[in-house]
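Hi Y.,

Following your request, here is the sequence exactly as I used it, all 752 residues.
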Amino acid sequence: MTSTELPRHRAASGLVALALPIFASALFLSAFLLFAVQPMFTKMVLPILGGSPSVWSVAMVFFQAMLLAGYCYAHLLVKHLPIRYAAIVHLCLMVVAFSALPIALSASAYAPPASGEATWLIGVFLASVGLPFFAVSGNGPLLQAWFARSGHPHARDPYFLYGASNVGSFAALIAYPLMIEPMTTLGQQTGGWTLGFALLAAAIGVAALAAMQGDEAAQDAHVEEGAAPTLRERAIWIALSAIPSGLLVSVTAHISTDVAAAPLLWVVPLALFLATFVLVFREKPVVSATLLGRLQIWGSGVALMTLALDNHTMWLTLPLHLALFFVNAMVCHTALYARRPAAGRLTEFYLMMSLGGVVGGMFCGLFAPQIFSSVVEYPLLLAAALFCAPAAIAAMQADRAALKREATVVALAGLGALAVTYLAARMSGSPDAGRLISGAGVGVAMLASWRTPARPALIGVVGALTATMFQSALAPRETFRSFFGVHKVREIADGRYRGLEHGTTLHGAMRIRNDDGTPYTGAPEPTTYYTNEGALAEAIRAVRGAQGGAIKRASLVGLGAGALACQFDKGETFRFFEIDPEVVRLASDPRYFRFLSECGGKDVVLGDARLTLTKQPETSQLLVIDAFSSDAIPLHLLTREALAAYLTRVSDDGAVVLHISNKYFDLTRILARTAASVGLHTYVRLDISEEPMEKRMRASSLVAALARDPAHLGVIANGDGRWVKLEPQADVTAWTDDYSNILAAVRDKMMR
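Below is the corresponding structure, written out as tokens. Let me know if you'd prefer a different format.
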């Protein structure tokens, strides 16, 4: 070796020694950016489509598709270019993507369509964040493939770096709702992401240099590929990735619908999903496959039982379904890791994994809402996951004839069970009896058969069908699905009322029978939150009194079953604003609800109120915000910009009334501070109904009344002790379109 070559050799040796921390750091930062941008940008988009939980479902489909594109790009670079040329190509892509930063909504985002929201939303994501996300998405397999060619002692099996990468993803998902969102604005977040992107480009350059200046013989040598995977093996990779991906979308949509569409709740299932990769992609498993298989069977039996029983006890079912999702993802990813190929086929393996993720995400996020009227895909995926356990796979491969015989027996037993369930429901006159038998039967059968690997999976299929299709056929209800959620119209309170439900929350009810069972033929009376003695009705009467006995014009955001229409007098003009066309159809059809047809509320404007309300030429003396997505008012309707927009369409002597009931958040202090920032005074009333809801369908509610001058609220501000004036407090930060802190609302609820 010459004297001129010695320094280069020493530098190369130093980089090779540092290759592991260099690559691990680059992968960590790349994964952190990749998963920080997902809740950040989706939060930007959320207000455009009314805060619908489906926005996150579509977002996950988009990001999974872009991840597939990135993995395909990485596979092509590794397959066709040496590291030195691949690094140049990739760094050039990073430079081009940097020119598209900082991330911001494209101009097309501000004109959502009346239909085809999912396709349009994917276009918005592509135009706004597609290029930067694509540039980051391929780093995982690309850097691992480079590391495999670096000559490092651990280069032979680089899959462990996938776990390190997912630590970065997990950190981003935990940090975003707990630190980034509460402490920074969206503008600061996009600026920080831009800085992180620049640091990542530098880290990738150093990693490429470490790979190129390592052992050149190892770099240029043919990395061990092993036998080429068969089509069947590739299909198994795809299936083992698709099932947990589909469950991820389904579970997240379930949580977002029942609580709120917010990053805090989006990231919990995704964090659990990524944690499974950290725990599984390692040489020694953290949890044995045998224990995972048993937990999966037991959890699936209980979960399918609760689905069949139609159990919506949030604090019972939420931990159960999250825990089962985690176990199912562990089972699938354990089987996936066990089937990993040699390092030479690493990028192809990740490409098939990503393809499976897209298949599962698209099935649940795009196709299932068009195919099924209810959430059938979730229990079906629970059953499919049971086939992914290593013991079940081995049993299916060992003796297919025995498997066919067992499937026949289970199918016949399932048909018999369905027949018994149907007869029990018909003979008792109640679907609850059928659900009880079917739910208990499925659960007991699965728990009792845990020692037989394939049988629980077969029973799970029967249970999934029982929990969805058969149950729906027995129950006296109709189910309708749109981009904005699943709506159920069914008879409640012993058949005396017909209710409209979204998620697990009742959004309106109308009496259809008298107490003696005879048909009710009188005029529809407002029920639930809209009763004559409730806070919403009282606020309307107070504003009417302040206006001299009549409200000339009112704007009502959120239609529901239309009961609010019956709180207005003849001669008063009012207009509804509703984002979901399916809700408009149901409320306008007298076969379901007669509030609009008999109380004169047929003037309905379709679209998000933040956009459609401000386009109205007239001003109103009263604006009622009663928009809900399941149990939560969309948070973008409570920001400073939203309130300021409302004031442009409310007369100087008018008022704004907001229905802010929520099981999990207390929005009163935040609303008071935000309202004060635009010059509004805030009064609230907590209306608690002491009687059972089934008696008169009267629900408790929390209502806020806002006005520029308290005198415009009439008796609310003049001595009605049930209404309390809220003064803005210094320890509360006003919410804006750029900043919101859902943890503060959770804390206030817990401290109430």
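DSSP finds 27 helices and twelve strands in the chain.

Thanks again,
Q.
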